[in-house]
Specification:
By secondary structure, this protein is of the alpha/beta class. It has 6 helices and 11 strands. It has a 4-stranded mixed beta sheet, with helices on one face. Strands 5-6-8-7 form a 4-stranded mixed beta sheet, covered by helices on one side. Strands 9-11-10 form a 3-stranded mixed beta sheet, covered by helices on one side.
Length: about 240
């Protein structure tokens, strides 16, 4: 059962599930609130619990609102770009040859044809990001297949507005957000482990949390770091 309760201007999505404890969460990027409670919990009890946590909810929402946001990328020389958690300056070279990207210790060099616009430059960078993820993801998937005793039928890269990853446990596939190429590689590994564990336990149940605790004990720190890093300039909505 899922419903919504309202406390003043705050809306909270309440889900009753077969669990033992109440889980209250404030989700990035917009600070929406969910409450998951045991099946026999009365809505007035869930409301009272949420009211008792209003201070904490407001604090968490304020932290999300204060996160640094990337300004829209223009793909011009000396613009800041991130790769695997490190900051680089972009350099544009206009050459009459096939577009390409190279990198050194402090600079990403984007080579494009004369007259290329921001849309074209963005597409070249995005294709490069995907190629880097296609290099980084398979070894991590293979490593964790052995550890978790599961087999990933396939993985896909996709720009996603609200999630770092997803899993179709029926098909055995996982999907990764291409924005992960901007984050430290250990956070890519965390997302991969999280999604692969859904092949073992499809829901975010207590069993799932226990599996994460056992296989990736630092997952809470990794999740917090993901949520604290600069968000894209896009407006992320569900």
């Amino acid at each position: 059962m899922t419903t919504t309760i309202t406390i003043g201007e705050l809306s909270i999505r309440v889900t009753l599930k077969n669990i033992k404890h109440v889980h209250l969460s404030v989700h990035p990027p917009d600070g929406h609130v969910t409450l998951v409670a045991p099946t026999d919990t009365r809505l007035e009890v869930a409301r009272a619990y949420a009211i008792s946590k209003l201070g904490w909810i407001r604090d968490q929402q304020a932290k999300l609102m204060n996160q640094a946001r990337e300004t829209p990328r223009q793909f011009v020389t000396r613009e800041t770009h991130y790769l695997w958690g490190r900051r680089y300056l972009l350099k544009i070279l206009q050459l009459d040859s096939k577009p390409s990207v190279t990198i050194d210790h402090k600079r990403i060099t984007l080579m494009v044809r004369p007259g290329s616009d921001g849309v074209k430059r963005s597409a070249v960078i995005h294709a490069w990001h995907k190629s880097l993820l296609h290099e980084a993801a398979p070894p991590l998937i293979e490593k964790w297949e052995a550890k978790l005793g599961v087999k990933v039928a396939g993985y896909y890269l996709q720009r996603m507005k609200t999630k770092w990853g997803s899993c179709n446990h029926r098909e055995g596939n996982i999907r990764l957000n291409t924005e992960l190429v901007k984050k430290p590689k250990d956070l890519l590994e965390y997302v991969i482990v999280h999604e692969m564990l859904h092949l073992v336990e499809p829901t975010h149940s207590e069993r799932f949390v226990a599996l994460l605790d056992g296989h990736y004990p630092s997952w809470r720190e990794a999740r917090a770091e993901l949520n604290e890093l600069p968000l894209s300039a896009e407006t992320w909505k569900e």
